[in-house]
Fold this sequence. Notes:
The structure holds 2 protein chains of 2 kinds.
Chain A: H1 3-41, H2 50-57, H3 66-81, H4 83-102, H5 107-124, H6 145-155, H7 171-174, H8 176-194, H9 204-213, H10 218-231, H11 235-252, H12 257-277, H13 280-283, H14 294-303
Helix pairs in contact in A: 1-4, 2-3, 3-4, 4-5, 5-6, 6-14, 8-11, 9-10, 11-12, 12-14
Chain B: H1 5-31, H2 38-56, H3 63-85, H4 91-113, H5 117-121, H6 137-160, H7 162-167, H8 182-201
Helix pairs in contact in B: 1-2, 1-8, 2-4, 2-8, 3-4, 4-6, 6-8
Amino acid sequence: MSSAVVSQAWPRRRTTVICAVDARRGLQLSLAALWLLDGVLQLQSFMFTKAFARTVLAPSAQGNPGVIAAPITAVARLVAAHAAGANAAFALTQLLLGLGIAWRPTVKLALAASIGWALAVWWLGEGLGGVLTGHAGLIAGGPGAALLYAVLAIMLWPPADARRDATFVAAGRLGARRARVGWAILWIALAGFAVQGSNRSAQGLHDVIKDMAGGQPAWLASIDNATAALVANRGLGVSIGLAVVCAAIAVSAYGSATVMRAGVAITVILSLVIWVTAQALGGLFGSEGTDPNTGPLLVVIALAFWPLAPRTESGAA
Amino acid sequence: MITPSWLGNGLAVVMLAIAAYCASRLVVARFARRQTHYSFDLMHTAMGVAMAGMLTSHLGPTAPWIVVFIAAATWFGVSATGNLLAVRGTTIATGSYLRHLLTSGAMVYMLVATPTVAAAAATPTMMSGPAGSTRFPTLALLLGVFMVGYAVMVTDRWSGAKADIDRNGNDAGRDAAPILAPGAVACCQVAMNITMGYMLVVLL
Lengths: 317, 204
């Protein structure tokens, strides 16, 4: 290989790496902001009451196997007994996770801690997102926002060698193949959830969306009520359509860069549409929301799969 | 009372400490021949006192405070525009002015939307009506998200590129005097933004 070839190839590769690192940091900061928002939401009045444990934590045990449900019930009792102290600890933990990810020297430590914390919340606070109860679904926030926080932390983990597989951000540490498998598993699971249990019933989606519209500002409630009316008595058809879209998104990760970009774009649009029209922005209004639900997380995960165009020094793609 | 009083009181103490520190910067910078951004320090001083008052229901009449923060918003708006149009203006400085403009606007919103944040925090919201009694709750959410994002941005810049923090809104040249404790300013901004995020979220 001549030196001329090397000198031409190196800047292209190097610039691609820089692009991947910048994009990864941007997504890490998005994750940090979400954790910080969660911490601030956790400081709301309602969270300091026993009602938080009784109406948010304890019900997530319902329908789960005993081995899963028993610890949830025990933790809910413990939190109810020490509502103020426990909630202060929860809020502080989430604030520190957000600041830890934003503070560059502690990003790995904070990401690792966030994985552990998110998985604990997924089990003890969300009852595994309803995955084992048949109530999980993209509309309802399945498979649980907390699980997606953990998935995102893994995908955004800083790679040991920034040059390796920097074709998209999620491939940085996992490698492109594992990242694609993770993406496919997530969306195939969501496709499966869309057509399971009550989601198949004629009024299943209508009831879920109608519930979320309660207590929201007029403009948001009207959007959600209109969506609920739109899917009323069409639950099965909408669920099947949703499952097909999810399956298409799952396989898009294995396509060309153009197909991947289309898959990411569809994911972002779908996630935002569902977040506004069906999830009521995660129920942030009404002072009882603990997180913005899965919509923003799915958007950030999708952006981690956006193919990064290699650029030369002149900036040409 | 739902929210523990220690939370509001504790945050109020922190805000007062920040206000005192930012006020002291105005004096120390002059004597130590260090640079500081006087309008930002003044703004943080006023914000700290007003936020402490709102957190503890000891703010007093809100009208003077609204005037103060509308004046601040106007000042930062004019400064941002001037910087944008100036030949030597920088994007970083303009961004910093705009962020302070939004922060001033958030203060005005909080003062207008509800008498005290402490009162809102004490409301048993699970029994209240749709979206509580706050006016324009969507604006509270948007501003709250902005505050959280601002805190993250400041933390990232401070940890990763100290030079960015030094330049942020200062435009210090190579021959200019060093900036007074930029890390402390970043700390103050992060604490204030998170606290303001909390104050906005309890209005939802």
